[in-house]
Structure formats: structure tokens, C-alpha cells
Write a structure and sequence with these properties.
alpha+beta, Helix Hairpins, 2 domains, 5 helices, 6% strand, rod-shaped, Zf-RING_7, coiled coil, Oxidative_Scav/Glycosyltrans
Length: 246
């Protein structure tokens, strides 16, 4: 491939800008705020699930408590009814009196058992409601932390994107001064290796840091100035300058 020496030297400026753009892109992909936002978002999702579970449990226990309290009230009403019968003197048969008293005692034991159930349910409900409240408080803190991380991420994005835009503005006129064929080769090599062109300095390719052999250096010396030469080791375009040691 042939290209004017001035075009080839432009590749060094282009490679320098592209390296800076690559570093900016890497920085954008690896911002610590990205991992922070991801972790906080996952934490919020887990909290949402935990809150639903706690609220569902509290709701179920509220219904259980209402049923248990209704059962207590029903037993209490039966006790009151039987006690009124007992106190009224309407029951005179010793057998019926004994049966009624026995029933009242049994109902009182039943009431005591049911009241214990109500207390247990109330304690479990209170624990579930407290857990839900604690989780909601934590959700508020995590939401605030997420908002802060997103703001810092967006600020970093804006800074990086601004720098990248400025570099691309400098890149465009450089690209305009490079022939299509040479630019296509550069882009292909850059895609393959990350760096499309490198300076030949003191007999060494600065792309792969390999010292060229005498034979390779002699071949480059013999090449015409407009000949596009490549590193035999990494295949990048080698740019000759007064510092090449030829």
C-alpha cells in the first residue's frame, strides 16, 4: 500500500486521540458509581420483596386476630348467657345446675385459651409490623443513597462525554487528511489489536515494544517513503520519523 509520508504521520496523532478515547470509554464502563448503582438497585428490589412479605404477614395476622377475638367474644357471650340463667334461679334441678356450672367452667377455660391465642397473634402481628416499618426506613435510606450515586454517575458521564466530544472534534480533521484505503487498514488493525499504528523509534516498534531485526530494519530502510510498512511481530502500521534509527 502506498500513502504519502504526511498521511502516515497523521496516523500517530490519530492513534494518540483514539487511545485517549479508548481510555475514556473504559473509564465510563468501569465507573465505581455503576457498581454502586447496581448494588443499591438490587438492594431496593430485595427490600420491596421483604416489605411485601412483612406486610402480607401482618395483614394475615390481623385477620387471624380478628377471628380469634370474635371467637373470644362468642365464648364470652355464652358465658354471660349461662351465668344469667344460673343467677336467675330458673334452673332448680341439681343435675341441671351442675351441668350448667360445668359448662360455664369449660367455657371459661376455652376463653382463657382463646385469649392466649389472641395475645400470641398480637405479638406476631406487632413483630411483622415493626419489621415492615424497619424495612421501609431502610428503603428510604437506600433510595437516598441510590439517588446520590446516580447523580454522581451522571456527573461523571457528563464530564467523560464532554472530554470525548472534544477529542472527536479534534479527530475529524485528522481523519479528513488520511486516504480512505490507509484509514480502512488503520481501523481494521485498531479493531484487531486496539492500536492501529505505532511509531518506529530507535529500531523498536512502540506498539508491541519489539526490537526489529536487522533484516527487518534493512527492509524498511530500502522501502520508499510512501510505502506503508508493517511490524512483522504485531502487524501494526509502522510510522517512520527521524527518531526511527534508520
Amino acid at each position: 500500500m502506498k500513502a504519502a509520508p504526511e498521511e502516515q504521520k497523521r496516523l500517530l496523532d490519530l492513534a494518540e486521540l483514539d487511545a485517549k478515547l479508548d481510555r475514556l470509554a473504559h473509564r465510563r464502563r468501569t465507573l465505581p458509581e455503576l457498581a454502586e448503582v447496581d448494588e443499591l438497585s438490587k438492594r431496593l428490589a430485595r427490600l420491596a420483596t421483604e416489605i411485601i412479605e412483612a406486610e402480607t404477614e401482618a395483614g394475615d395476622l390481623a385477620r387471624d386476630q380478628a377471628k380469634a377475638e370474635s371467637d373470644v367474644e362468642a365464648v364470652r357471650m355464652r358465658i354471660d348467657r349461662d351465668q344469667r340463667r344460673l343467677d336467675s334461679g330458673q334452673v332448680t334441678s341439681p343435675k341441671d345446675l351442675s351441668s350448667l356450672q360445668s359448662e360455664i367452667a369449660s367455657l371459661q377455660r376455652r376463653q382463657s385459651d382463646l385469649e392466649e391465642v389472641v395475645l400470641e397473634i398480637m405479638e406476631r402481628r406487632e413483630a411483622a409490623e415493626n419489621r415492615a416499618a424497619t424495612l421501609k426506613s431502610e428503603r428510604e435510606k437506600v433510595t437516598a443513597a441510590l439517588r446520590s450515586a446516580e447523580e454522581r454517575r451522571d456527573a461523571a458521564f457528563a464530564e467523560i462525554d464532554g472530554e470525548a466530544e472534544a477529542l472527536r472534534a479534534r479527530r475529524d480533521p485528522i481523519v479528513a487528511g488520511i486516504g480512505a484505503e490507509l484509514l480502512a487498514l488503520y481501523d481494521k488493525l485498531r479493531e484487531q489489536t486496539g492500536v492501529g499504528a505505532a511509531m518506529l523509534k530507535a529500531g523498536r516498534c512502540l506498539g508491541c515494544q519489539t526490537a526489529l531485526s536487522i533484516a527487518d530494519l534493512n527492509a524498511i530502510r530500502a522501502a520508499a517513503p510512501d510505502e506503508v510498512v508493517r511490524c512483522e511481530e504485531c502487524r501494526r502500521i509502522l510510522i517512520r520519523t527521524p527518531e526511527s534509527g534508520l
